[in-house]
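Subject: for your reference before the review

Hello V.,

The reviewers asked for a structural picture of the protein, and I figured it would be easier to keep everything in one thread rather than splitting it across files. Below is the amino acid sequence we used in the manuscript, unchanged from the supplementary table.
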Amino acid sequence: MKKALTILAMLVLLASCTEKKYKITVIFPDGSMDGKVAQLTVYDSGQVIDSTIVANALAVFEGKVKDTYMSRLIVDGKRMEFVVEGGDLVIKWEERKATGGELNAKLNVLDSLLNTVETDEQYSALFKKAYEENHDNGIGPWAFYYYLMYNDFSAAQVDSLLKQVPENYRNLRKVQKYVAGVQSKLLTAEGKQFTDFAVECVDGKTRRLSDYVGKGDWVVADFWASWCGPCRREIVETLKPLYEKYGEKVTFLGIAVWDEPNATFDAIHGLEIPWEVIIGAKKLEEPTRIYGIMGIPHLILFDPKGKIVSRGLQGDKFVEVVEKNVGK
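And here is what came back from the structure prediction:
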């Protein structure tokens, strides 16, 4: 009996050794966030691990972690990503950076490198290197997902990649979403007829893509969100000049996705968007799922009969396609 108890005690000790305590202290510049809820979530699934109320310009989380993971810290709708790992971590909210842990130090180096590059190919190379070097910790799955996002892989290429990474990567929600998106993209590729979708809008009406597309006019559809900086730039620098030039012969349509209705209304007013924007009664995800859109802004040009002429181009490349087809 005594021997059995000794073995049990050893097992408990071993189990406890696999878990490491952490303390995460979030420091805000002033008391403006006091009373707000701070949430510690799993980046991949969105699962809330812990929450606390900001007080005296601080939010503190304490717990144990067995396997390190990428977290998304959310406060008052704003967010940042860092690795939950053992030890004392400090986050200065203004800097959106965690210090005090080995993995977060790695993440900060990667973030600095990402700020020095400009092309998708350069981003892709950095994320590829990051996941290859971090298979055994929380950075790996996160970096692998972003590596996928910065590449236009085929279904066969994705399948080949998944065979090369740890098996648990296949079960990641975001990776599964990417794989499903690749399939959806095949069905809505250039040259295909448009796929319809319906949106229950904030004004109580139902609007469909078919209300605008396939009606005899060229259509420029912009999938965007108010919080997306590149989306806002694309509206100002690309779409508005095109609207001024072709607005009488082309239907311009905004589709606000992954966003809160009130934030969309504020952006429409602030950006002075002159064309119609479809705004769902809640965050829209179905349109991007149907079209396999995994990043925004995403522009699609439909011909008068509803065929997809171009998708995914931005800036001057998109302008060239519009001028080539519409400006005949």
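For the response letter, the relevant points are probably these. The CA atoms of residues 234 and 315 lie 7 Å apart. The radius of gyration is 23 Å.

Happy to draft the paragraph if you're swamped.

O.
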